[in-house]
Amino acid sequence: MNLRRIRTARTARTDGTSRTGPVEPAGNSGADARPGPEPAVPPPGGTTPGGTAGEDRAGVSRRRLLGTAGAAGAAGLAVGAGGGLLAGPVGRATPGAPGDTTPLSSVGAARVDFHGAHQPGILGAARAHAELLAFDLLPAAGRGEAAALLRRWSRAAGAMMAGEAPDADNGIAGGTGPSGLAVTFGFGHDFFDAVGLVDARPRALDPLPEFSADALDPERSGGHLWIQVEADDPTVVFHAVRTLQRAAADTARVRHRMAGFNRAPGAASGESGPRNLMGQIDGTNNLRPEQEDFADRVFVPADGEPAWMAGGSYAVVRRIRMLLDAWEEQPLDARDRVLGRRRVDGAPLTGGGETTPVDLGAVDERGRPVIPADAHVRVSAPESNGGAAMLRRSYSYHDGFAEDGSPDAGLLFVCWQADPMLAFVPVQRKLDRGDALSAFIRHEASGLFAVPGGAEPGGYPGQRLLEG
To answer: Is residue 223 over pLDDT 60?
Structure first.
């Protein structure tokens, strides 16, 4: 027996396993809640490469983690609620036991493809953790530098979303699966001035109007470039953010950053959407992919203007602080009237369950509307806004406490639409004029970004703009 065999035998005697032993398959935990996870891609099967640049000290690379699913066979794949495949069980190093492997759950193994007709991070349920970042190009950076940066960012994002190590990896995410990582890129209004493409700026990117209840901080608003990074594991999110920030060092600097969260997958069931920090189920009356006009409302059509935005969408981002001290002083029935829904189960005050349509015409025995005239669900409803609607995909946030002890917490509101002037703007104007919820919230930051269609393999979002 040679020395290598002796070391292998010692490992087997001390921890009961061999580093080269088989990985035991495990079941999947299912898909995220409505509207379903981003379409996931199963991890690549077959023989896993060894000696990769991203291999960690335990000898387990992110690429190898995903490759082990090939050995699990058909039993390692499960069909998610959205029709996509959730990645099956894959091995990872167990802290404190370098020779052991345990299977990643479907949460860690879930993988989203970076390439496609639309960018990731728009469809599917928002993930458990997210960071929203805005960058400003450095004064010396122009169109060519911006194109090179987007290419670097896309190459890194594609690798990390596939569970592979990006170039010059720092090893932060070693041993983890991609955890549904999705990275989305967008352009702000002033980006086009910075790169000398003012004539290519979309009309839909005109600045949002001022609203009477706004208290916007310009330092946390706007930006040349916008990135949404989300995943179901916070370490995976940080790794992606740090990687992208490092890749931008010579071209752009961070203007502002906002971190948000939702419930972890599997933490709750039976509710179609997450609960916000007011305790209400959020986003029940949202656009759904099965609706006939969903794509028309969310994405710029193939023959839309400008041509480089085909397949893209416009993201409105608002940091909305919730005045929770004042809110929590209200009786529960008063809170329900402000929203027009019951806190306990999300059902409209007109009855039924959470997903029962709201009957805005219902009256009580005295002839008064069951849903108050200023209830949030009435004021924001498409029926009250000429059919205007948008796809909401938001996150909660908590950034500590003010000097008076009140929490700096609320909602990182993100909505997607084919044209914000036909969706977000008319609804927000209506809310600004008579929403009972306005007394308990404050809009503190704002952004509007053009998010181009998805990238082809080897390309990057916005390539038609910057290289056309």
So the answer is: yes
